[in-house]
Amino acid sequence: MSAIGVSANRLEILQIANAVAAEKGIDKTIVIEAMEEAIQKAARSRYGQEHDIRAHIDARTGEQTLWRVQTVVPEEELEDEVQQLTLDQAREIDPDIEIGGEIREELPPFDFGRVAAQTAKQVIMQKVRDAERDRQYDEYKDRVGEVINGIVKRVEYGHIIVDLGRAEGIVRRGDAIPRENFQNGDRIRAYLYKVSREQKGPQIFLSRAHPDFMVALFAQEVPEVYEGVIEIKSCARDPGSRAKIGVWSNDSSIDPVGACVGMRGARVQAVVGELGGEKIDIIPWSEDPATFIVNALQPAEVSKVVLDEDEQRVEVVVADSQFPLAIGRRGQNVRLASQLSGWQIDLMTETQDSERFQREFQERSALFMKALDADETLAQLLASEGFETVEEIAYVEQEDLSDIEGFDEEIAEELQTRAREYLERLSEELNEKRRELGVEDDVLELEGMTLQMAVTFGENDVKTMEDVAGLVPDDITGWREPGKDGKPVFQAGILAKGEMSADEAQLFIMRARNKVGWIDDEALAAIEQEAEPDVEEIEGEDGDEASELTEEERALMALDDLSGDVSLEEIAELDESDFSDDVDEEGADDDAEPR
Prior knowledge:
Blueprint lengths: L2 H22 L3 H20 L5 E5 L6 E9 L11 E2 L1 H7 L8 E5 L7 H28 L5 E10 L2 E5 L4 E4 L15 E10 L6 E5 L3 H11 L1 H5 L2 E9 L3 E8 L6 H6 L4 H9 L4 E6 L4 H8 L5 E7 L4 E6 L4 H5 L4 H10 L2 E6 H23 L3 H9 L5 H6 L2 H5 L6 H29 L3 H4 L6 H9 L5 H5 L3 H5 L1 E4 L5 E4 L10 H14 L5 H11 L5 E2 L8 E2 L2 H10 L7 H16 L12
Parallel strand pairs: 2-3, 7-9, 11-12, 14-15
Antiparallel strand pairs: 1-2, 2-4, 5-6, 5-8, 6-7, 8-9, 10-11, 13-14, 16-17, 18-19
Helix pairs in contact: 1-2, 2-4, 5-8, 9-11, 9-23, 12-13, 16-18, 21-22
């Protein structure tokens, strides 16, 4: 081969490597390594697969070098006479070589045959393809959480394939906004929420229905959100129809709702336009769950809120006329409010709440009539004064009974005597039943255990201290698991719902395990200390002593001290017309200004 021919060949190799690297967006070194691997594979086909043949291409000059390599090993470790040499054999070639060294024999250049050339091409293409996939994965895996711009390449069975430039993404049917219609060549914006490494290449998953897509759009349209002055604490969407976002300002001088709405609704309208007219409720976020839930249920007016923090459930009472507003079209309003707040919301009308109160009132009256041997009038009077159990009557201060209108000290004393006698009889009956069930006496000595609980445990075949120690909190309090429709369904535990919290059940079981020697006193003491509740205190405006904020006080604050510059009544008036649009069979008014 002439010097000119060799020089041209070298130049061509470098040009190919540069062109492929630039086209695929990968490192030139990877292309050259792929070429070296292809040359090695072709050389083994010519000289024999048993040889250790290595190739090298100089990245600066393009010069190619080919060697057959043999490794020097001790004589007793010689296993492959083709790829290995003993020390004596190697020193005949290189007197200075040592164990572990390599003898390299340079091989002459050769012409690739048709089969060898095709094989080399496949090796290079596969290596470049793998490098391109790695580059795509590395490029996009760090962009999760960003809004990506692309062009619709094709639509297949509702799935949108998006050309992102150096890669392709997919908006699956479930990640698209319903009723949106994209055509080939349309520009599209979507939220990158997942990148997975697959055998056929990285899969880039995009979404226009993801709640964080709306959050990212607000960050682009509202400078205060982008800068972190305003935080979007939570977002719930019914894609293409309605959405709610909870906003909070770290600067008391900035109204988070007004900042997100913008002048004449310009900012929120830009987001609505990108989402195809999806209506957005912007809700002032609050650290107090009751307040936030009341805000989230706008435009409905809430009468009462009762929280169950252990179950993360809230019971909300609204006026009968407000019930359709609170529910929303096909349950949309309450569903979005539940997703936004993270609480399971149980809606109830004032009529239903009154009926439940009357039912509970009658049950308490019947209990007092039986336990105190009293007439209906007296039992109802006690129930109306707020007494709920016989224990309260038996051990309340006598003045609390005698101060009731129509009562005196003699009546109060007689009622307490009858109540205590009833409790003693009930205790004896429960204790006898406990013995019949076989519940051991030491179980009854556990802190927090009552006779009624002992009977209930015995009925559930928990009779010894070891039985109690072997339980888990869910066994006692109950648990939730997905039902047939996918919604969580409560499974009852040993005790009635609400009788013992999960933390109390955990501590109860740990004390049993301490009794049977499964954990030592030091470990139990640490668990008890950790379980001690933190008392949240608030200080009055006049500097009086701080007092504990109760659940009822938080509920009242939620109704009386709503955050934001706009009152709940004003917001409800603004939203009622919008709600009427929602329930209109012909659809919502597209020109309605978002809130």
